[in-house]
Specification:
17% strand; elongated; alpha+beta; 12 helices; Alpha-Beta Plaits
């Protein structure tokens, strides 16, 4: 049986991605703060190992909490707003949080390290915060930190989780051949739906459809390669676990649509269905572009997966996989049905295809 993908300590793929991002933010902010401190943030007499350890511990915990605010709360609140409103609103809220962090750091250092009483530590913070130079320095410092963090989150999610880091470290500067599972997914009956809804409403329909499908894919470790209209191209490293993740993502995507079926029916008078083509094989992965850098995947595996997806209409099936994909995994007989040897457009020889009963 194919079950949900929450296999690591009960956490889904999306939850693990968010926790990793929060951890990266916490480590980055802690390191930056330590560098600033070592460059003159403390008076020399206060620069002790105990003070540094206490400060680093507090900054890490508070930064992890701020990361949660970035990734979960504020992102959910401002998801439907333009980027500039998103950034300005978040900056204002996070600057208020930064003031609280500055207070906690200042107070704990003076109370635990310098031996001040609670009232003296509070008075010291108030006195410092009333200095315009101190306020400007802190505001600039936190704004820069927020900007870098926001750019990291936005760019990382623009390229799909993990892709930005690969580009940053130059992993695919030289093209590499990788064995990957490829999935092409698109909306069924898109042309009549577009004619019925009109341009603007159809676009909103597609955006909502893609959102719910993408959530299921990301939850199951899929790397979204690209969106083309109503089509989503996804890949996984070819492992047994990812074979399972791939199939679960289809099931979860279908569930996501079913959960929102009343909303789709009420708003668009139709419930979206999708078709899927699956294949596994070698693809070439490398960086392309000059102004806009991106990762490109090419090869016969990509072409074959696209042709399999197109065959769904001709064979009146929702989910079709190649014999290579079936052989790679471990499906029960009742979960698949051979469709025989099928001639695919652009292929010299026909290949055996299977309908998935999932």
């Amino acid at each position: 049986m194919i079950e949900n993908s929450e296999t690591y300590y009960g956490l889904s793929g999306l939850s693990r991605y968010r926790l990793r991002t929060m951890f990266v933010i916490a480590v980055f902010w802690t390191l930056i703060d330590l560098i600033v401190v070592l460059l003159g943030g403390f008076q020399p007499e206060n620069l002790s190992v105990a003070a540094l350890f206490l400060r680093a511990s507090i900054v890490f915990v508070l930064s992890f909490g701020m990361g949660h605010l970035f990734i979960f709360t504020l992102r959910k609140i401002f998801r439907k707003y333009p980027l500039w409103i998103n950034f300005l609103s978040k900056s204002g809220i996070l600057l208020a949080g930064a003031l609280i962090i500055s207070f906690i750091l200042n107070f704990t250092n003076n109370y635990f390290i310098n031996g001040y009483t609670a009232s003296e530590a509070l008075h010291h913070f108030v006195k410092e915060s009333l200095h315009l130079k101190w306020l400007l320095q802190k505001t600039f410092y936190w704004l820069m930190l927020f900007l870098v963090t926001q750019l990291y989150i936005e760019i990382n999610e623009k390229y799909s989780p993990g892709v930005f880091i690969d580009i940053l470290i130059g992993k695919y500067f030289k093209p590499k051949v990788e064995h990957r599972i490829i999935m092409f997914l698109d909306l069924k009956d898109s042309t009549p739906t577009a004619e019925k809804l009109g341009h603007v409403k159809y676009f909103l329909f597609i955006r909502e459809f893609i959102y719910h499908i993408s959530m299921a894919i990301i939850e199951n470790e899929g790397r979204i390669y690209q969106y083309v209209g109503d089509e989503i191209v996804v890949s996984w490293s070819a492992t047994k676990n990812n074979f399972r993740n791939c199939l679960v993502s289809i099931i979860e995507a279908r569930k996501n649509i079913q959960k929102k079926s009343q909303r789709f029916r009420r708003k668009y008078h139709t419930i979206p269905e999708f078709r899927v083509g699956l294949h596994v094989g070698d693809v070439t992965v490398g960086e392309v572009g000059v102004i806009k850098r991106d990762l490109a995947m090419s090869g016969d595996t990509m072409n074959t997966a696209a042709r399999i997806r197109s065959a769904c209409n001709e064979l009146n099936q929702k989910y079709i996989a190649s014999a290579d994909f079936i052989a790679f995994g471990d499906l029960k007989d009742f979960q698949k049905e051979s469709l025989g040897i099928v001639d695919l457009k652009g292929k010299a020889e026909g290949i055996e295809l299977f309908a998935l009963k999932i």
